[in-house]
TrEMBL record:
SUPFAM superfamilies: Composite domain of metallo-dependent hydrolases, Metallo-dependent hydrolases, Urease, beta-subunit, Urease, gamma-subunit
Alphabetical keyword list: Hydrolase, Metal-binding, Nickel
Pathways per UniProt: Nitrogen metabolism; urea degradation; CO(2) and NH(3) from urea (urease route): step 1/1
PANTHER family per record: UREASE (PTHR33569)
Record GO biological process: urea catabolic process
InterPro entries cross-referenced by the UniProt entry: Amidohydro-rel, Metal-dep_hydrolase_composite, Metal_Hydrolase, Urease_alpha_N_dom, Urease_asu_c, Urease_beta-like, Urease_betasu_sf, Urease_gamma/gamma-beta_su
CDD domains (UniProt xref): Urease_beta, Urease_gamma
Domain named Urease: residues: 449-489
Protein name as it appears in the record: urease
One term under GO cellular component: urease complex
Keyword Hydrolase: yes
Subunit-structure text: Homohexamer. Other oligomeric forms may exist depending on pH and presence of salts.
Length: 489
């Protein structure tokens, strides 16, 4: 009989498993022994779960239940819960109520907001916990339950929080009011506001939707001359222009509605690509005639309008945004401060490589699209492999916000990434192309990873523990779970 390698692996595992059972030493699976490596892998966990007919998702829910029950025991003792415990308790109880089968999704969303109050959690938790999402299986299928603002009252309903646990419900007197408290990651904003697309030519035009359905998600960096044929406006005036709205946002045009909008000149090399292919070229006066002939021949709505200006401070066509709104969308900028965790340390942004109005972001009107924030016609060799956008970098060289370019597996550049055909200030080494992966870094801090220079390489799981604690480089020695490795680096 021929036995393939997976079958041999299973037989070997069974033999080891039953040897432990016969020796009465099966608890060694959870001790720090060489055998521990064999029994901690996902394959082994899956093997055990198959006998109980558990899917991987159900195995994870058992881990969630353990964390939730631990949180319930601490709550029953009158201890305030941290962020992890609060999430685990809320998610666990929601799933238990789903299993009871007498509540709808809407009712469970409401129950989730009643379980814990501000006095039952640590002071920082309400600021960190915006929502809790968990999937539950109802009689008519699996549904996602989303609890928004789960810590929204002074005191939670502890009877509901401990329902089904058979733990004693503590008195509310065990949870005294704590005044104040630090807000983790708190922003302190600089003075004034942010003016978008400063110094660019702008036009104000009237746009009418002549169609019978809404035209939505016209993004900030979409070449406006290329928009839906049912929109009627002065396309000549819109040549080489885009919406003067925050990067990554969008504008919607309802059927039959007419509205006035402000457009601004695109930046960079001013080359239009993509869209409906009306103006697929360099934007200049010599190409206007060809572009307008294409507009008319293809039946795109067109009219005439007159009004033009240049965006300056105080201009009626200027688009400005508060520093708070800007930080919430793109991260803090020059002059803003951010609290590091819940400490008394604040980091102040010293430099921002972003061009206000030309940030590379996703969102409802995502910028990183073909011919917009993503360049077209560039080879992969000329573009980044990966870019991390709008990250706050804390480094020995300074504190600044920038895009991070990755090429060939290493950080290759810091600065402004994007499409040089339509954006100002894009670094030559930081072009976003069709093959560039994008990681959103808005609201994130990036700093150098730690180095551990005394490591016993006893098992592969060291790498997971290292990454989880911020260690990116390990220096040491060893060959695995052997006595020599345990004693020597």
């Amino acid at each position: 009989m021929k036995i393939n390698s997976p079958d041999l692996e299973e037989i070997r595992f069974l033999l080891v498993h039953f040897r432990f059972l016969s020796e009465g030493q099966h608890n060694l699976r959870f001790q720090s022994q060489p055998h521990n490596v064999q029994f901690q892998s996902p394959v082994r966990l899956l093997f055990h779960s198959i006998h109980m007919r558990l899917t991987p998702r159900e195995v994870e829910k058992l881990m969630l239940h353990n964390a939730g029950y631990l949180a319930q025991k601490r709550l029953a003792r009158g201890l305030r819960l941290n962020h992890t415990e609060a999430v685990a308790l809320i998610a666990t109880q929601i799933l238990e109520f789903v299993h009871d089968g007498d509540k709808s999704v809407a009712e469970l969303m409401d129950v989730g907001r009643q379980l814990l109050g501000r006095r039952q959690v640590l002071p920082s938790v309400p600021h960190l916990l915006d929502s809790v999402q968990v999937e539950g299986t109802f009689p008519d299928g699996t549904k996602l339950i989303t609890v928004h603002n789960p810590i929204s009252c002074e005191n939670g309903n502890l009877d509901l929080a401990l329902h089904g646990s058979f733990l004693p419900v503590p008195s509310l007197e065990k949870f005294p009011i704590i005044e104040g408290g630090k807000i983790p990651g708190e922003f302190i904003f600089g003075n004034g506001h942010i003016l978008l697309n400063l110094g660019r030519e702008a036009v104000k035009i009237k746009v009418t939707n002549n169609g019978d359905r809404p035209i939505q998600v016209v993004g900030s960096h979409y070449h406006f001359i290329e928009v839906n044929p049912c929109l009627i406006f002065d396309r000549r005036k819109s040549y080489g222009m885009r919406l003067n709205i925050p990067a990554g946002t969008a504008t919607r045009f309802e059927p039959g509605d007419a509205k006035s909008i402000t457009l601004v000149r695109i930046g960079g090399n001013q080359v239009i690509k993509g869209g409906n292919g009306i103006a697929d070229n360099l934007t200049n006066d010599s190409n206007v005639k060809t572009v307008m002939e294409s507009v008319i021949a293809r039946g795109f709505g067109n009219s005439t309008d007159t009004s033009t200006s240049v965006i300056v401070e105080g201009s009626p066509l200027a688009s400005k945004i508060s520093r708070e709104a800007y930080a919430n969308m793109y991260g803090p900028t020059v002059g803003d401060k951010i609290r590091l965790g819940d400490t008394d340390l604040f980091a102040q942004v010293e430099k921002d490589f972003a061009v206000y109005g030309d940030e590379c972001v996703f969102g409802g009107g995502k910028v990183v699209r073909d011919g917009m924030g993503q360049a077209a016609g560039y080879s992969a060799a000329d573009c980044l492999d990966t870019v991390i956008t709008n990250a706050l970098i804390i480094d020995y060289t300074g504190i600044y916000k920038a895009d991070i370019g990755i090429k060939g597996g290493s950080v290759s550049s810091l600065g402004k990434a994007g499409n040089p055909d339509v954006m100002n200030g894009v670094f030559d080494s930081m072009i976003i192309g069709v093959s560039t992966e994008v990681i959103a870094g808005e609201g994130m801090i990036v700093t150098a990873g730690a180095i551990d220079c005394h490591v016993h390489f006893i098992c592969p799981q060291l790498a997971y523990e290292a990454i989880a604690s911020g260690i990116t480089t390990m220096i040491g020695g060893g060959t695995g779970p052997a006595d020599g490795t345990r004693a020597t680096t």
